């Protein structure tokens, strides 16, 4: 694994716990974690339970005792590491966004396909039981023809103008801002649930254009210094979408929504019913079915912790909720099985590319002030 | 009053009840109600408590014992009646939309201003206690600078393809469909709460293009005949907006949102907090303040039934909620006072015109496939 | 009508509006309102729309042009007025509690039955659409055998120790405190929904034993004087109940529940499902059905504003909610029809007596420190 | 560790993860797990990450390489194992209930105190961030004097009469039924949050008196056989309580509440505010403060995932919720620190005894049909 910060912790936890709750075809061995700062990565290796550590990802990629590489380094490093890992015949599991831009993302997909290695992109929210239930309801036809899709991904950690200039706010490192970080998740969920985008039109803002440069690389927490730096990504991006199936979509992502800590939501209206989901109450799915008798129809709040809900039975009895990190355990479980026995798996690098196409079409629409077809990027 | 159906009932109720709960400068006398169908209007006059009735609105307008005219006939009749009433020196209270198009709306505004009569448009939702509270919070500066405005107005009575072709679905009578009916309310609330629109871009759909022609004029209820007619208005319209103050906006109105019966909502993010409101729980306002201590900050659900909430003290003790029709009582109260003693009043025909401008800019943006400035219409 | 304060206003409004929204067998004529303070009752008569007023209820009862008497004077006056009205052959509609104690209540019931007049007690919450839906679901068998009933009636207007000593806090006028005022409603709803009580055991508190004597008789609002008076009723009373059908019950009423303004709730668990209701969101009923497929079962929030919901169709289209006072319109409608054409009606004085029995059994259980059977009082 | 079923899994997970998210004074080494069925315990050891396994707890207790024993075997085995472990000088962490009855619980407490070993009882819900926040708010005085405490612990897995006769339904193994299993948690939370009980009165039911005997020992899931056995514990128990500080309490626990999967809730009213919590949304705490301005006061939904919330900062950024099992990680963390460096720790066996006293006082009150003081048991 390359990277040992927020995502490094989430992924490490997944590898550590997956075997306890799921029956794996092949066991996980947590061979090595890699990071540039030796002290930091050594501590992470100890704490997270890795057998060894490296400070140069090239050494990691070169090791014979490693079958697959998990990349959760900053976004600007994804491509180089992934290509090297693929070249070394390793399977690759990459954090989103796949790359800093569409061209790079496509290059990574091509490389992986040609090399025949297994590849995955970490769109972890697909793997929550309530989201799986949403998918199953739509696929069963119970929602009918889809008319509307609305998504929000709202956070509030940038609304404070004193919040420091983290690496996520530098375009050259992060590739994109709120749009690439948060809308990427919303776009992937929309594709997963109702299908491909046709065209988009958007707008965006950088509300706070200069921020204090942080004293350390820690990013999100802690105070900044008195020196100011330029924010080179968006604070918020919204867009309208037409889907290939005729549905209308609305997406908004922002880090300026006071009180919304991690408000990743979707609401989907079909000819037979409605679904609503919110990451802050990730165990719940709200569902309305028109086929219910009129006097008894209402939004159902389904607590997706029943043994009948996918993955839920691997954890605790009904009503004992799970948390954010469980999505990582589930995606890791599915990808491990995929590598071990070839069971079907998505999302792959292809989904990373498709997501990047939509992101860039939105950017282009903002430049042009008009609708842009996905095939135009 | 002209019109005696859904809105006629809501308005009549307001005139009947307003004096019981509010102290009026001048008493209301419910002189006459007018409708084309004599049997229908006679029954309505009896049931709603009007002293007399007319079947020709021209006679109503000509009566000397009447000081002001309330117009809630279908939208295509608004202009002619209003102009005649204004010409006769009556004050005018008109249902939205003001007219079938912007040119007509502007003509009505001009006529009213030149004649010096009092004029009002029935954007009733401004007058609910929770919405008044939202306004007061924003004006006090407690929300800070506004960054985001999101509105939905969702209903579901058209999702059934057998739902008949009501007059609201014919462009020549209604002027517009979901957009003009529902987005009009959302646009007015946005203007009321955070100010003027700068530019917009939208998309729309007519999901069901043919519907059964109804056997009667009753519209919403009852079965249609076997004959089919063309739906000439939109079923759903969504749009992005930039506001003059720099805020980003998203609006979506549809009658295809299964389970959302009257889901008129807004969510507003400012630099100091967030507001959220939903017509289906119209007594409640959700508020988040960043200035609360971090460990105690959370969305507050304020039940706007306290004597400190505008209008609430005129009704019942705290916790005894009010309903949809109370907004009409409040707007009628304010307009009656305005006519009696010149107290400030909005929304007037000017607000009707401003709303129409945004509606038409959205339509134009749909035609052109790109952003349209409000000043372009 | 006798009384013109809070309840006088609510009842007057009901008589005024009922004919507008409901088809009555016989029209309502609002003949006369009665109160001791001439200035006050005169103003009320004007404002509420009564033809005349009286300052002596004996004169009111003696009038030949009056067929029925609505009693919403303070509780200590109920019995005398009701007996006189019954003696005069008037139908009687009485606010709860029926009387200050069980013996008086039984006397009133006997008198009404012997005289053959129609009688009603104003348990208005039975007549809200969501409560009617709850009743209908239980009667249809969809909830199965009832196992649990839990009720709360929580307010917070006494939690402030400076809140003055209103008449409701004097045992000699009010008969009882929170228990008689709030638990009375909860007991009636329980009887209405699941049947008769078998035995009870309770506890109660008067948290604030002395309060400022109010300068006027206005009671709830306004500051008190510096003189203090004794609170002679309970601030809070809770009790366990066994029902005759075997269900277990829990009831708690208090005016010391900060933030709960009018939190009249019930939750009922049956062998096939669960119901939950809350007066602060009175249009909604939450329902869970075990017969739903396990992966799709969840609490449904039914918005009881559909034409299929009792009374809802008389008001507005689906999703346009109603308020607190509508319950009075509905009960008045049913009682007017009952008087006009003998259609079935409950709750009558019998329900007032049954409710009083439970209230007094709870009081007795508190005295004795043990369970008391209802038949013991 | 003794036991490897539901609780065994939850505890094992806690030991496995605690070092990854918390800085421990002394590392955890998962030495051995113990269970009677060799095949089962061997698999559990592998899956959960224990170094070795035992099939006889006496051998476990005798091992020199083990410093502390975690007991999560069925309740009837707690006492014997705990006494042996204490005798061997091991620290002991015991699942609730401490023992089958109060006398045994007191004996265990005495033994532990005399031996000077560290002891803990697994009341895990104390250790959730939102519950910690509740505690902190009460201790800070922000809630004022406590007037009311209401708790429910509702589940629904027994409402199906075909649900088999699990060991939890046999008094001789489980000691108690719903009362001992669920009310035990509610009693502990009440003691933790507002203090000691003074007296109680209750009632209980066994709604389904016979159930199918399960074919295996698995308990909760799976079909039973056609043979029926007697249910010897309660399905539901409710009780009123008076607290030593004068507060009134209501508690109800049942496994017959359709749709309530794990509805462990409390609502606390103080003279300055209200708190409400629900295990099914365990990351949230609802709070109302009377000191807020009247027009802005409302129930706040605090998402207790901020770094300022206890334990939350050890996991993920704000808004990334945690689940049921995290409470075990936290209690294990605190007890490990307590053993390593003597930092303060509760709940100990003393809390187990206190809880048992209340449970038995309720049982006694049911027998006697009247209030029972805690000191009477």
UniProtKB/TrEMBL annotation, chains A, B, C, D:
Q: Which Pfam families match?
A: GFO_IDH_MocA (PF01408), GFO_IDH_MocA_C3 (PF22725)
InterPro entries in the cross-refs: Gfo/Idh/MocA-like_OxRdtase_N, Gfo/Idh/MocA_oxidrdct_glycsds, GFO_IDH_MocA-like_dom, NAD(P)-bd_dom_sf
- A GO MF label: oxidoreductase activity
**What are the protein's UniProt keywords?**
Oxidoreductase
Q: Does the keyword Translocase apply?
A: no
Residues in domain Gfo/Idh/MocA-like oxidoreductase N-terminal? 1-118
| GFO/IDH/MocA-like oxidoreductase domain segment(s) | 131-276
Domain of life from the UniProt record:
Bacteria
Q: Indicate what this protein is called per its UniProt record.
A: Gfo/Idh/MocA family oxidoreductase
């Amino acid at each position: 694994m390359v990277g040992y910060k927020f995502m490094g912790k989430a992924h490490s936890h997944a590898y550590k716990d997956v075997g306890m709750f799921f029956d794996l075809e092949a066991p996980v061995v947590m061979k090595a974690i890699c990071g540039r700062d030796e002290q930091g990565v050594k501590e992470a290796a100890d704490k997270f339970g890795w057998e060894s550590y490296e400070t140069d990802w090239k050494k990691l990629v070169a090791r014979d005792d490693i079958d697959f590489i998990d990349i959760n380094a900053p976004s600007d490093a994804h491509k180089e590491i992934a290509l090297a890992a693929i070249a070394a015949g390793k399977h690759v599991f990459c954090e989103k966004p796949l790359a800093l831009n569409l061209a790079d993302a496509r290059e990574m997909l091509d490389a992986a396909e040609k090399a025949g290695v297994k590849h995955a992109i970490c769109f972890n929210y697909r793997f929550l039981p309530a989201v799986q239930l949403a998918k199953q309801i739509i696929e069963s036809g119970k929602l009918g023809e889809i008319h509307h899709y609305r998504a929000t991904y709202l956070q509030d950690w940038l609304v404070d103008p004193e919040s420091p200039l983290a690496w996520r706010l530098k375009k050259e490192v992060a590739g994109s801002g709120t749009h690439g970080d948060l809308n990427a998740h919303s776009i992937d969920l929309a594709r997963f649930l109702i299908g491909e985008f046709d065209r988009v039109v958007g707008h965006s803002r950088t509300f706070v254009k200069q921020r204090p440069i942080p004293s350390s690389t820690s990013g999100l927490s802690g105070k900044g210094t008195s020196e100011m730096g330029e924010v080179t990504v968006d604070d918020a991006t919204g867009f309208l979408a037409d889907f290939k199936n005729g549905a209308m979509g609305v997406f908004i992502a922002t880090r300026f929504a006071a009180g919304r800590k991690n408000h990743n939501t979707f609401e989907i209206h079909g000819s037979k019913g409605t679904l609503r989901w919110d990451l802050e109450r990730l165990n719940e799915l709200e569902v309305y079915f028109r086929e219910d008798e009129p006097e008894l129809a209402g939004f159902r709040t389904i607590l997706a912790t029943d043994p009948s809900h996918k993955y839920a039975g691997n954890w605790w009895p009904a009503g004992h909720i799970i948390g954010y990190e469980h999505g990582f355990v589930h995606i890791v479980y599915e990808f491990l099985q995929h590598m071990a026995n070839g069971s079907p798996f998505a999302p792959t690098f292809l989904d990373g590319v498709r997501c990047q196409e939509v992101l860039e079409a939105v950017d282009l629409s903002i430049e042009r002030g008009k609708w842009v077809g996905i095939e135009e990027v």
